[in-house]
Specification:
The chain has 171 residues and is of the alpha+beta class. It is built from three helices and five strands, in the order H-H-E-E-E-E-E-H.
Amino acid sequence: AFYAFLFTASFIIVFGFVYWIATSALSSEAKDEVMEAISTVEARYDLDGIDQALGDIRAELDKPRGLKRYYMLVAPDGRIVAGNMARVEPFSGWKAFPVVPGLAHVPGDDEWDEHSFVGYGLPMKGGAFLVIGYDSYFVVEVQEAIIMAFGWSVGIMLLLAFCGGLFFSLR
């Protein structure tokens, strides 16, 4: 029984590390993609103005990709000129918002409470404002898959430990 407990405890510690590392890696990669997009749009805006940045955002919105991105470009006069999300108050840096109907469209999913929009806000030259972000629900899905896999693994491990202990005690 002691060895089964020790093995289970070590298994749970490994689970914690896998959970933490996978969650951190996914979030970091998504943020890196957003920062790359921010840099591209900002450079285009600085070089060629709002019309070119607008075209780049529209082109990005048409691309199929695994991570659903959300964009909002607000012109200096306050109009939203590009994007697929509702207006948010200007901010600078990273910010997380609860995803509610109307902020951003999440196709085919009614579990709004599990969604979180993570966006990077950038006030731009001339008074424009840019937000690019993503729905972090994919991280929740991976966390749930890790928990389920480890749950089944612990259950099978305990069953095998019990059967092994029973087998050796009957000998």
